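Ticket #4471: structure output looks truncated?

Reporter: J.K.
Steps to reproduce: submitted the chain below (217 residues) through the standard prediction queue, then opened the result file.
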Amino acid sequence: MNHLYFYSVNCSQQPFHPSTLSVRKRLIDIVGAIVGLIITFIIAIPVAIVTFIDAPSPIFYSQIRCGLNGKTFRIWKFRSMIVDADKFKHLVENQAKGHIFKCVDDPRITSVGKFLRRTSLDEFPQFWNVLVGDMSLVGTRPPTADEVSHYDPHHWDRLRVKPGITGEWQANGRSTIADFETIVKMDIDYQRKWSVAYDLSLIVKTISVVLKKTGAC
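Returned output as attached by the reporter:
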């Protein structure tokens, strides 16, 4: 954790990325989060019913993630795995390369969870994270503290913007990208190309990708 703290302090001393200071981006986040939460409330009841039928367990799942400059926050999702899935992570083969975890046929995912992930419905509770300011509609994938603790210095550059529900790699590859260094390059490229208009284009592209289930697990 000392390693994590050292680089977190170092990252916080870096110049602010324009996106973190943009009032227009924040307003879009708030409006988008409100709309997203309305949809979340609507789908929560059927999700709760099918989750209970499949395997009685809490409907929501939360985990500590790292956001802007490595600051930790609690992320929320609809549960797609068995209870206490994190305790069995070491038993699952990591099919990704680098400081990220991916497994196409993760045995911890429930049958209902597979549908939620394939349709990205499991992500909807994150609109709450966007509303309170921990996340943005568009940004980087929020890593776990364990992943960040192994970061090399250049990996911290991806945390100069808020994590997002979607982003460069989600809109342009989703689960087909399994190399962490590729994700880092895409996140840095997003920072270079960032503008409010570019965020909106990624949101539109993400909606299209999700509807077509392109690159879904």
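Triage note (M.O.): checked the attachment and the full token line is present. The CA atoms of residues 166 and 203 lie 7 Å apart.
Status: closed, working as intended.
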